[in-house]
Amino acid sequence: MLTNLEHLGLAVADLTAATELYTLLLGQPPYKQEHVASEGVDTVFFQVGGSKIELLAGTTPESAITKFLAKKGEGIHHMAFEVDDIRAEMARLREQGFVLLNEEPKRGADNKLVCFVHPKSAAGVLVELCQEIR
Ligand code: CO
User: Shortest CA distance to 12 belongs to which of 46, 39, 44?
Assistant: First the structure.
């Protein structure tokens, strides 16, 4: 089951500048910064009530964020839903014909197991499923 809009992921060109901007916009500093080497990204997280804003900057030319920025510029990169059982949700979506970008849940930022749904099968939006690692 999808239980919450967990976060919106924003692709940014300059992580320091965007962190300062969002600190002002949200009226609070981020609670976490994290480098995810496997994805080639640096992330900064803000908590807003029950949801989060995740700023993402690419750290390698091969990073999906670097490619996204080159193609589309800064903006919303993905929306992420919290799920209670990521494998069950992946099976359910596969059955419904959605294209998943990874066959197995993988370790993402912020202590989560994640799986992505291809934007082509979700009206142009990259969708992330995430489940807290307990
Ligand atoms: Co995310």
Answer: 44
Domains of the chain: 2-132 (3.10.180.10)
Please, are residues 47 and 35 in contact by the beta-carbon 8 Å criterion? Answer: no
First to last CA, the chain: 17
CA of 53 from ligand 1 middle (Å) equals 9
Alpha carbon separation from 75 to 65, 71, 112 (Å, rounded) = 11, 11, 23
pLDDT, greater one: 39 or 27: 27
Against a cut of 0.70, is the pTM above it? Answer: yes
Centre of ligand 1 to C-alpha 96, Å, is: 23
Q: Classify residue 37 as left (phi > 0), alpha (psi -120 to 50) or beta.
A: alpha
CA 14, CA 1: separation in Å to the nearest integer?
Answer: 35
If residue 28 lies in a helix (H) or strand (E), which one and from where to where? none
- Statement: residue 110 has pLDDT above 90: no
Task: Give the distance (Å) from ligand 1 centre to CA of residue 132.
Answer: 12
